[in-house]
Amino acid sequence: MRLSSKKFLDYFTNPHSTEEMPVIDRHVMKKKKFYLYKKGVVLCLITIIQRKCDKIVMKKQENDEQMEKKFAIVKNGAKMEEKAKDTMGGGRMQYEGQICRAPMERGAYMLPVAVGCSYNACKFCTLFKHLQYRELPIAQIEEELQRVKGLNGRPRRVFLGDGNAFGMKTERLLKILKLVREYFPDVAEVNMDATVTNIQEKSDVELKKLWEAGVRHLYLGIESGLPDVLEWMHKDHNTGGSIYSD
Length: 246
Ligand code: SF4
What we know:
The chain is of the alpha/beta class. It has 2 domains: about 60 residues, no CATH class; about 140 residues, Aldolase class I (TIM Barrel, Alpha-Beta Barrel), CATH 3.20.20.70. The protein is about 50% helix and about 10% strand. Strand 4, helix 4 and strand 5 form a beta-alpha-beta unit. The chain is rod-shaped. Iron/sulfur cluster binds next to loops.
């Protein structure tokens, strides 16, 4: 028995109808319900897939934007490096000799102020044997500071190279420290290598001035507490200079 659409809708929308639905029509309705259920499930799946696709597209757009930003930063950095190269004739630090410093200084900005070691006679040290000691011109030191500033460098700690930078005259050291402050006001400390004799040769007033100008750590090669070992190693100090007592 076939059921007209209108009749079917009546049964379907009016469950309190007193009229008994014919068995065959119940079967048709069941089939229709099942069809509607399937259609609903398919629609849900389509909606879920659509949302997922939207999310993927949005994520891709975000990634593209981030990549563009990163690319712009890199391009900007490259431009600044080029500018520094143009103004200073080279984008890299000019360094003569081997870089050697205490591990604690690995994060510090190493600013060369001299080549080699003014003493250069310790028996065991081969770092600077092949180099003639000389102090770098102040103009060259300033060029190096300009180079790093041009690259947007903002060091908090500076290490003055080379062998025994603290052996330089106090006036020269103060000039360099002033330049460091001018270019990088955020620098919290300036450190360097020294010999025991370098320190002994400076007066208390000089040491105080250097402290006030930012010097904080001096790295010393005391090497031994035995006078004969120090002598044999050609160190420039004896135990009298390196052992402190009140
Ligand atoms: S003072 Fe230091 S850098 Fe100079 S020769 Fe001796 S160990 Fe080497």
